[in-house]
Amino acid sequence: MFPIAWMYYFGTNLEHRFSVPDFWPKAEETYKIPFEKDEIHGELERLKQRRLERRRLRLEKEVTTSPELERREGS
Fold first, then answer.
1. Is the model's pLDDT at 75 over the cut of 90?
2. Cβ(75)–Cβ(67) under 8 Å?
3. Contact present, 29 and 38 (Cβ < 8 Å)
4. Cβ 42 vs Cβ 34: under 8 Å
5. CA 27 → CA 19, 30, 73, distances in Å?
6. What are 40-57's pLDDT values in tens digits?
7. pTM beyond 0.70
């Protein structure tokens, strides 16, 4: 009788008993994959601008912290 009670306890109402509310994101919160040609080109342009901006910031940071620049200024 005990195994049947165990299966009944864990086998019923599982979606309410062991669920985490708002675990999965809603459809409007997820990333939308572009399918149209114009959307794809727009997304590629956005990614390119983002990559170039990060590169520019990285290069600026490298120039300001470069040890060669400090040695040249100290000489």
1. no
2. no
3. no
4. yes
5. 19, 6, 56
6. 999 999 999 999 999 999
7. no
Q: Which two tokens stand for residue 17?
A: 């008993």
Q: Is the pLDDT of residue 35 over 90?
A: yes
User: Is the Cα dihedral 35, 37, 38, 43 positive or negative?
Assistant: positive
Query: Distances in Å between the alpha carbon of 13 and those of 1, 6, 23?
Result: 20, 13, 18
| DSSP string for residues in the chain | -HHHHHHHHHHSSHHHHS--TT-SPPGGGSPPPP-SHHHHHHHHHHHHHHHHHHHHHHHHHHHHT-HHHHHHHH-
